Each structure stands twice: as structure tokens, then as C-alpha cells.
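Re-run with default settings, no changes from the original entry. Doing this only to confirm the output is reproducible before filing.
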Amino acid sequence: MREMRDHVRDMFQHALSECSIPRAFRRNLQFDSRHLRIGNELYDLRNFLRTLVISIGKAGHTMAEALSGIVGTGLAGIVAAPTAPLAQLLGFRYFIGGHPLPNADSLRAGDAILQLLESPSPQTLVLYLISGGASAIAEKPISAGISLADVVATYQALVHSGAPIAEINAVRKHLSALKGGRLAGAAASAQQASVLVSDVPENALDALASGPTMPDSTTVSDCYDIVKRYRLLEHFPPSVRALFDREQLQETPKAGDPAFTHSHYATVLSNATAVNAAVEQAALYGFAVEIDNGCDDWDYRKAADHLLRRVRELRHGVSRACLVCGGEVTVKVGPQSGVGGRNQQFALYCAQKIAGENITVLSAGTDGIDGNSPAAGAVVDGSTVERARHCGLDVAAALEGFDAFPLFDGLGDAIMTGPTGNNVRDLRLLLAY
């Protein structure tokens, strides 16, 4: 079983290495001292009086550094990320925004971004480098009456509601002066290019960072429905609740809006990159491999039951089976919770279901951070429950208390990568043998 735990860790590490942002930028961006190619679009930088860079999200530092490595000096702009940079790039202002909840620097970053984009001309090129987590890391409330404390309370209510990220972001978009295409609207007269490192489903790119530069596919009506469905109104602060009570939400820019006339997008990394890398490594270890992303945004228990059933079926007729699953699961956290996250909660639930079986499960986030813990996720197998019992650790109590990290830390089965400076959603790997 230890060999399988080592194998599954290797698969995850290989996936992380293949999701290297510098490598992705070299594949998708080229510069010849005059022309910058981003995906299928070509920009002659000599035609622009200013080139501004706005890099926001968990990969804010690594994306800005990768762009600078390609283009060289002369860039200027803003970087907002959840950690301080090891070294600052000349010409950039830095903000350490909060995640998963905004902090004061998140709001300062939002103000600075909008100020930077004031009165842009057609001879301005704005390069947005956008990655997951930017929803909280850079923020500006739609109303001056919404304080930082109100924003934090609203985010807490949304994150703990059990709603999938797309629905959470639908509400965030309509409460923000940056999100839902409004950032593109602020620079509508400029040429705009967005380079995306996606942590959202492949068919919902406007949910990435709550879609600051993309046409919004969600509506005010969606927001009212979501808030009602998850009974969120009672958990919102008065300043936000009033917008819903009075139905005063304003609509976000949609496809065809002039804000997007000169706006283009290129996705350089996504969850598919991590999934495909894990599949390659599993095949090298001799596993029969299948991909199942069908449980994206499911409740963690429903997703675990489904994936365990699939890997048991896949095991029939082969000596080694591997099921690879990308995306995220949802966890509705109780009023009292310990230290953990959705990946560790998923893994610990699986541990109970596979006790005594030759099955190994890994669930981890490519950002290196799972919930409020220092771990990226965890590994479990058929021996986990018994090993925990021998160590005096209670699996059932840890599950009920959303307190999985201390248990995994005690067993040595937590995955500790530290913040990766990247985020392409989560990866779940299930081995049966």
C-alpha cells in the first residue's frame, strides 16, 4: 500500500510540473522585439503609447514574471496576489490580497486597478493576466455603502453555502465594480488581451476570477434565484441585503457590449493540462486509465461514492486501474469547523468507504492550499482507518468536525507542497489493484 501511496503522489507531482506557468507562456506567447503574439492575436507594441499589465490571482506573481521573461523590461502595471513576491518587477505596484476572503489590500488593489485604467486611449494596450482566486484578491464593491467587513461577511456566506463556484461567482459579479466584464468596460476604448490560467470548468470561462474582462453569462435574475435557493439573505450584512430586498442589482455587460469590441482571450493552462499529465504518468506505471470529470461541483460525498464505484468497475479484468478526475467538489461547512478543506474532507470520507480494500485515493488542489489548512490535500488507502485508530485518531469525529488536517498530519498523509503560485483546480486520483 505504501508503494501505491508513493505512486499516486508521483502522479500528482508530475501533474504540477506539467502545469508550469513559464512553460505554458513559452508555448502560447512569442515576442520578437516588436510583435507580441498571444494565442492567435498579434500586437505590434510600437503602435501603442502605453502597455499596461494587470496580473491578479493566485498565479499573479508567476504570470507577471513569465510575461516579463518573454517581453523583457519596459512593462508596468499592478500585481495582486495572496503572497508577497520573492522579488519585485521594476515598474509594478504590488498588493497582497486576501484569499479566500478579501482583505484591505484586496480593496486597495481594486481601487488602484480602476485608477490605472482611467481614460485609456485606443493607443493603450492592456494585458490582463488572470488566474483563480482573483475574485477575493482584487475587489471593489459596487456600492460605496458596502464596507470591507460587509464584503467579507458576504463572501463567507457564499463560500459556506454549499453552492458551486459558478453560482457563487454569479452573485459576486453583480456586487463588484470589477467583475462580470466591468473591468473591460473601464478600459473599453483600449486594446485588451486576457491571458487566462483557468480554475473553472472548460465551458464556463467567464466564472474565472468572476470574469472581470469577459461577457457575463449570468444575470440579475440568476442572483435573486441563487440567494433564495441557498437562503443566503439572512446571512448577508444589511448593506448587501438591502440591494436584494429592493431588487437594486445592476446588470453586468453581456456579449455584444462595446466593452468587448477590442478584447481578446487566450487560455494557456486549465484543469485539462493537469488531468492529461496525470494520465500519462499513470500509464507509465502500468495502470489501465480512465478519465471521469462528470462529478464536477458535486457534493463531496456523492462524488466520492460515484468515483469509488467507477474505479471498482474499472478494476474488473485488469491488474491495475486508475481513475483520474479533475474539477472541484463542494462541502457545506457546519457552524463549528476545524482545520481542513474540501480535498481532505473528500479523502477522509473515501478512507471510511475503502477500509480494508486495495484502493488508494489522492485528492489535492493544484494551488497547494486546501481550505484553511497548510496542506494541498491528502492520500488515503485501505489502511488509513486502522492506522488512525492505532494512533488514537478518530476518523468519524474528524469528518463530522471538518477537521481532517490534524488527522492526516498525524499520519504523515497530508500533501504538503506550499503555495504553488498556480491554480488549475483540483485533481483526484483513484488507484485500484
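Residues 393 and 407 are 6 Å apart (CA to CA). DSSP finds 16 helices and 15 strands in the chain.
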